Amino acid sequence: MKQVKIAGIGIVLALALASCSKNGTTVSNAQIQVGQPVSNTAPLSGAIKGTMKEGLTYTINGDVTVNAGDTLLIQKGVTINVNNGASFFVNGTMVSLGTKDAAVTITDPRRTKTPGTSTASSDSAYAGGWGGIWCSTTCPLLVLKWTHLDFAGAGLQTTPFPGPSVGDQYAVYFGNYSGSFIMEDSWIYGTPDDAIRYYGGNIFMVRNTLEKCGGTGGDGMNAKGGTQGIMAYNLIIGSATNGTKSANDGSTGRQCMIAMFNNTYVNDGFRNTGTFGARGGSMEVENHSRALAYNNLVVDCNFGLRIAGGNTVTAKVYLADTTAGSNSDFIKQTAYGYNYYYADATSIANQIVPTNVAQAVVTHPQATDIPNMAAFLGDSYTFGMQYDGSSLVGKNNPMFVNYTLPNMDYKTQCSVDGYNFHLASGSPAIGKGYQGFSISTNVPIDANFGATAPVTPGKDIGCYQADGSGNQH
Amino acid sequence: MRIPSLSAFAAALVFVLVTGPAAHAAVIKGYVYDKSNNEQLIGAVVALQPSGAKTSTALDGGFTFKGLAGGSYRLTISFVGYATVDTSINVEDGATKLFNFYLLPASSTLSGVTVTSYGNGESDAFAKRREQAANNIVNVISANSIAISPDITVANVTQRISGISVERSSSGDGQYAIIRGMDKRYNTTLINGVKIPSPDIRNRYVPLDIFPADLVERIEVIKSLTPDMEGDAAGGVINLVMKNAPEKFKAEGNIGTGYSQLFFNRDFYSYSKATVNAKSPAEVLGANAYAPVTAFPYNNLVTTAAKPPVNKNFSLTLGDRFLNNKLGIIFSGSYQNMYRGSNSNVLLQSLTVPAAPDDHTAQQPAVSDVYARQYNSRIDRSGVETKIDYNFNAGNSISLFATYLQLNERRVRITSDSLLGGYHTADDYIGPYAIYYKTETRSDLQSIVNATLQGKNTIIKNLVTDWSLAASEAKRQLPDIAEFSTGSPVNPNTSTGTYTVGAPQTENESREWIHNTDKDLAGYLNFNYAGNIAKHTALFRFGGMYRHKERDNYDNSYDLTPVSDPNSVYQQFVSIPDSKFTFVPANGALGNSAQNPGIYHAYENVAAGYGQLKYYFTSRFEVLGGLRVENTHQNYVSSLNPALPGKTADIRYTDFLPSVQGKYSFTQRRDIRFSYFRSIFRPSFADLIPFPTKSGANDEYLTEGNPYIKHTVIDNFDVRYEIFPKGLDQFMIGAFYKIIDNPIEYGFSYGNNYGAKPILSPQNFGTANNFGIEVVFRKYFGDFGVSGNYTFTKSVINATKLYVYLSPNGNTNYSYVPDRRPLQGQSENIGNFSLLYKSTKYKVDAQLALVYTGERIDILAQYKGFDNWEQPTTNLDFSAQKEFGKHYILYIKANNLLNTPFRLIIKQHNNAYNTTTKLPFQESADYMTVQYDKFYASYLIGFRFKF
Question: What pTM did the predictor assign?
Answer without folding.
Answer: 0.80
